[in-house]
Amino acid sequence: MSHGRAVAPGVPEGNGGRLVAQSDATLARGYYGGPPHDDEPRDDEFRRLLLESLRIALKRKWLILTIAFVAVAVGGLRTLMITPLYSAAVRVQVEPQSLKIVERGQVEQPETGDAFLRTQIELLRSNAIAQRVSKLAGLADDPDFFKPREFSILEAARSFLGGAAAQEEVTPSKAALEEAAAGIVASNQSVRPLPGSRLVDISYSDPSPARAARVANAYADAFIASNLDRRLQANVYAKAFLEDQLVQLKVRHEEAEKAVVAFAEKEEFVVTSEKSSIAEANLSAANAALGGLIAERIKTEQLWRQVEKIDEINLPQFLLNPVVQGLRSARNVLDGEYKEKLQTFKPGYPAMVQISNRMKEIDRQIAAEVKAIKDSHKAAFEQARRQEDEMRARIETLRVETLDLQRRGIQYDNLRREAATLRTLYEGLLQRHKEVDVAGGIGANNIFIVDRAEAPGAPYAPNLVRALLMALVIGLGGGCGAAYLLERLDDAVRLPEELERVTALPTLGVIPDVGEPGEAERALIDPRSGLAEAYRSLCTALQFATEQGLPKSLLVTSAMPGEGKSVTSLAVARHFANMGLRVLLVDADLRNPSMHHKLGLEHTVGLSSYLSGELSPPEAFQGTDIPNLTFMSSGPLPTNAADLLAGPRLLSLLSVGMETFDLIVLDSPPIMGLADAPLLSNAAATTLLVVSSGKARSGQVRGALKRLRFARGPVIGTALTRFDARNVGYGYGYAYGYGYGVDPYVYGGPKDGEQGREQARLTQS
User: Fold this and answer.
1) Where are the beta strands (DSSP E) in 504-651?
2) Same domain? 634 vs 531
3) Phi, psi for residue 512 in degrees, rounded to 5
4) pLDDT single digits (tens) 274-322
5) What is the domain extent for residue 598?
6) Domain boundary among 427, 455, 487
7) Separation between Cα atoms, residue 646 and residue 400, nearest integer Å
């Protein structure tokens, strides 16, 4: 139902009222807060967080102080209820053991250094030592020992309510009392080694100074006794273990010796250290001789094979023979003689025949000698082969004998070795048995009492001052945490950044809080006041709110009553009227009008009269003391305000008014719970949502915007009113204009300092 409402050209409808371009929004921000928050340096962000924390602390200071006071009171009361405790300390010296008997009777060098000392300290802190101390000091038989050390309201009430029934409780057993006493002892002891030494301080705290000293000394005595018991127990166990091992090992050794003798008798094995070596030497010599025989056999065989099938005598074996050489020489002489006489005589000549016969005889003798040489080589070869075969047979016999001797020797040596090993083990165990006997008597005690504990003269706890300081710190911390939690749970809109985050709209102005409502009207009269400066900044932002500049009609509304929308309407109308624009201020609150009181005018006729058709617009207008400002009051309060605003005469008024006036400012009723504001927003060109800092809730603001957007009301931005920099954090007084809680030029402040005021006006303008 737009009813033809006037919309600025180029401004889209249905965009949730965000009519400001990015550049315009950024420019508008510049009038009240400088650069955007995201562009601030990190140190400024840290400063902002610090100031925010300080703001929360100042805002919730009474909560913080109350919690701190309660914590201090409770801490002090609890401290006063604690039974005074006395602390006694005994100093002992812990020296390393000379020898240490470990598992299976092994005697080793003990641990030294920090590891040994840490072990002893943990033994002192053990429950076994605490039980021993409890028995040694007789704590189970001391009824005062089991009294509570802190006052307990629950226990007191239980004792009071129990009465006689408490007296009829079953008495705990001796074992239960000792166990309980050990637990108390363990929880109240302290073991502290002295750095760079072997000294250890054992402290015990107790309500009784005498008992504190007694228990501390019992700790030292129990630790010494426990150490001696452990050493004695280890020695006894080791001796028993070694004696049992000695008996078993002695039997095994005797059986091994008997096995050696039985084997020697059975195998007829004579133990000689040389027998095995002789057999091995004979075998080695036989192998060496065999090698020579093989070489000789090969040599003779080669010689025989060379002459075996050869009949000539041109081999060295023949030529070098002296007999053959002599025969050959004689034959050569005869051959020469034969050839010489052959020139004279014929072969048949008797002398020639004689020489020929003699040559044949010599040839026969040479052949016989060659055969003899062959036979000798063959005989030598056969002799070498027989010797080789005989040596091989000898070697085989020696090898069998040697292997058999080695086999029996190995068996014999194994038996002897086992017997020797058992003897060595037996002798070693016997030596360890002697060492255990010696170690059991060496260094019977390595823990010494240096200084015994004495009954302290004054308690060490509780420390009232320290307890109060701790309670104060805890209380302040808890108070700050509670304050921060409450601040996080508080959804009130206080800062421009919060308002922009909730509405997704630019904050066009930040208006300071000037106190009572009447102060605002008086402050607006002074153009040099901080309030006037803030509204001038808002009006400047409105001039850049749209692409066409200042809208022709502006609805000023708020989510809830009392957020400053009427003062804002008057301030905007007054500012633009002072600038020379023709401004019409309409009190559109037909339910609870107040604008005529601020202007000092009557409301006998006005908007309701016009909407009901009783008057024409000029007849409903009134002049004001402000030049260029025309006022239209609400008129008589109608019974059907929403019906009148939904009629066509409202749009007609705005259409006619925009032809006469440069700006129409409508002061509307609150949005929540009424239909008036959405109807007016739909008719107006733009809407300004006024939000009171610290009063308006984020849910209320979102609900108001939702109603305006449902009515297609174009919301141009927001204005944060009643902004108090003192309640939201330091620094906002300068970030959002002069005088926001700290400016001396605020209405009601000093009137002097004209030069400073003028400089402020020039800076702000």
Assistant:
1) 507-512, 553-558, 583-587, 622-623, 629-632
2) yes
3) -75, 160
4) 455 666 677 778 778 777 778 877 877 766 666 666 555 555 555 556 7
5) 22-58+491-764
6) 487
7) 137
